[in-house]
């Protein structure tokens, strides 16, 4: 029996009493992935990206481990909810225009001390001040650095379009704008190198593209390491009380951690290891989060139909954004239909061994987005479900 076949047998036994659709997290794999992230971080703390987990119980589990500290959230409303729930170090990774939430933040000393907001434009400071409604608490501010690699005098850009702050001078100017405005304090710098951390460099069947990605990433790492160090020096000259410099992502943990100026690493997807992380040379993890769909039809030889399953991930539309049938091994989509809104035909010889009601296990393309489809995660240890915990959705929150 292959390792994957053994996992399928375990998952089927563990969930035999549960009807699909359902989602699980294999805690042995989850914990092993957490340990690997800590190993790669080389002693620097990892701030957990909540968008890649979207389950309070699992955020608490990983933050209880040595090597993890703090949460990187994705909306201000989520940040406040987490702070009220006992998370005392929440970095909002994206700028917000949620005026009602800013009014809450600036009017509550507990929330203001626990939450740090992201800024890359003076207009964001004005929006916060206009939203205060009398709130006088000092807002903790993190400045985001644009990590993109610019070539040919800026005519070629590689990297996500995030912050407009690219040069040390631009980031330092933003720090001065914050320092001049009462009620704000610069406490951190963040730089997410998505073109390094979030792009696979070993795509099956595409050796030339994979080599090109590795060359690009090596050049981008060198350029960013030098520029990030310059940015940190420039900002410390304005804000000597700087508390943290956050960088990285699951795919670049060990490289970013090697930079002296970086004090902490941001990562989250590496806990679940979705399918997009199968194509990396820098690390390998164990798939920990899966979902199961039930077989509801057997249209013919070599084909079964499962209920639902059309759960595409965000990003540029493409085959790599689709979940993949994972267990039993050997199933594939019908190219005429793909994964469907209410039903999904699956082709391959393993279909002939599946009965009505059997489970087919899938892996989502991205990490936390799986939890937008399910209100609970069944936590599997060995061949048993030892707990069932709510996702954000199960607690009545979607945030985005």
From TrEMBL:
Domain of life: Bacteria
CDD domains: PLPDE_III_DSD_D-TA_like_2
Name of protein: Alanine racemase N-terminal domain-containing protein
A GO molecular-function descriptor: D-serine ammonia-lyase activity
Organism: Streptomyces viridochromogenes Tue57
Family matches, as Pfam families: Ala_racemase_N (PF01168)
Domain Alanine racemase N-terminal: 25-217
InterPro entries: Ala_racemase_N, D-amino_acid_metab_enzyme, PLP-binding_barrel
GO biological process per UniProt: D-serine catabolic process
SUPFAM superfamilies xrefs: PLP-binding barrel
